[in-house]
Design goal:
six-stranded mixed β-sheet, two-stranded antiparallel ribbon, 8 strands, alpha/beta, binds iron/sulfur cluster
């Protein structure tokens, strides 16, 4: 990703936090304990994956403990990545073969993947204050995407944090799977998160997920 990571006052916003970002004490502590238990894992804020010149941004919730937190690439190494990357390949937003590891050669096409919260939270549940704090990095990421026109929010937390960034209100832009919200030149597409829980319980079927990306593809083509 072509973005800046400097803290100089005159510089562009920082898009990637420091590996030891201290801003959320609970998450920093959880990260430290994960490093002690699994020193070979990534165990740090997971950077965005893809191209900052892309027109599509996908926003997830946060790294999974044994997924992105282990491998260092968003949605890589757990079930959510199986469905997400298969769908992105199908709609031309990724190419290669997804093999659940960061050196599998998979590349994104006109697409960047980021998370509402960059550090793994206990039980996959970030606190509101942590979501608010990490929004700084998501906002900077969006500001560093000059061609951005479509954003897919995976789940309600990603949707809610995007509303704050886009200055939308939940009464006029409520979360609903398949909903599309206009924000100036940007369109926000809502999807249920592609987690194993959601697919196992039937909340989200692969076809429901595909239909969101079909809509995005039609808009961007
Ligand atoms: S979640 Fe974001 S703001 Fe909080 S410690 Fe991690 S990188 Fe820093």
């Amino acid at each position: 990703m072509t973005t800046t990571s400097t803290n100089s006052a005159a510089a562009l916003p920082v898009t990637e936090p420091d590996r030891n970002c201290p801003l959320c004490p609970r998450l920093a502590e959880f990260r430290a304990s994960a490093r002690a238990k699994e020193p070979s894992w990534f165990n740090a804020p997971v950077p965005s994956f893809g191209d900052a010149n892309a027109r599509l941004l996908i926003v997830g919730l946060a790294p999974g403990l044994q997924g992105a937190n282990r491998t260092g690439r968003p949605f890589t190494g757990d079930y959510a990545g199986d469905l997400l990357y298969a769908t992105l390949i199908e709609y031309g937003f990724a190419k290669g073969t997804y093999q659940a590891r960061p050196d599998d050669g998979l590349t994104l096409v006109n697409c960047l993947i980021s998370n509402a919260v960059r550090c793994v939270p206990p039980q996959n549940k970030p606190l509101p204050a942590e979501i608010n704090t990490c929004r700084t990095y998501l906002t900077a990421t969006i500001e560093a995407m000059p061609r951005l026109s479509a954003i897919v929010a995976l789940g309600r937390i990603a949707h809610d944090t995007m509303l704050k960034i886009l200055n939308l209100r939940s009464v006029t832009a409520p979360f609903a799977h398949g909903a599309v919200h206009q924000a100036g030149r940007l369109k926000l597409y809502d999807s249920y998160h592609c987690s194993r829980y959601n697919t196992n319980t039937g909340v989200l079927t692969p076809q429901m997920f595909r239909s969101v990306f079909a809509k995005v593809k039609a808009e961007l083509d």
